[in-house]
Amino acid sequence: MIFYHRTTKERLTSILKEGLKINQESHLTLGSEWSFYFYEARPIFLGMTKYSLENYKESSPILLEINLPEDFEITSDLPSLVDFGAYYDMDSGCMWWKNVDDTPDLLKDFLDENGSISIRDLIVFYRNESIHTTKTACVLQNIPSRYIKKID
């Protein structure tokens, strides 16, 4: 499975030598701290496409290609679901959309009678639907450097 990851020039050498590691300080992903509670770690965020770097010119990000083996476990990128209009509640551990009709099609069948969906279920059971909705994913284990290459 091919994914992509952005990093900074300062971190590139370390990543190419040691790989990507969970529980690292976020350098380019902002506003995702709330999700670490549900992941029980700081995940590695990946994209299914070569995402635009236009919004990151200030930090001059570098694009990496990540070629994960099939047995690597990936899961939902919760912060990206917020980008798709989801709201979250830390106490209930649920996500929902303001209007049920705004719920992405791939996730509508999993809403409960209140129009919400358990965040744990998104991580464990509905991760494929979530990943294909956002075109992003999270990895909750280190990614060895042999799976990573810099894209020019």
Could you explain how this protein is built, in words?
The longest helix has 10 residues. The chain folds into two domains: 90 residues, ADP-ribosylation fold; 54 residues, no CATH class. With 152 residues, it is of the alpha+beta class. The chain starts with a strand and ends with a strand. A three-stranded antiparallel sheet has the order 1-3-9. It has a three-stranded antiparallel sheet with strand order 2-8-4. A three-stranded antiparallel sheet has the order 5-6-7. Helix content is 25%, strand content 24%.
Keywords:
ADP-ribosylation fold; 152 residues; elongated; 6 helices; 9 strands
The value of Rg in angstroms is 16 Å
Morphology call: elongated
Order of helices and strands: EHHEEEHEEHEHHEE
Structure summary, number of beta strands: 9
Distance between the termini: 20 Å
Number of individual domains: 2
| CATH class annotation of the largest domain | Alpha Beta
CATH architecture of the largest domain: Alpha-Beta Barrel
Number of helices: 6
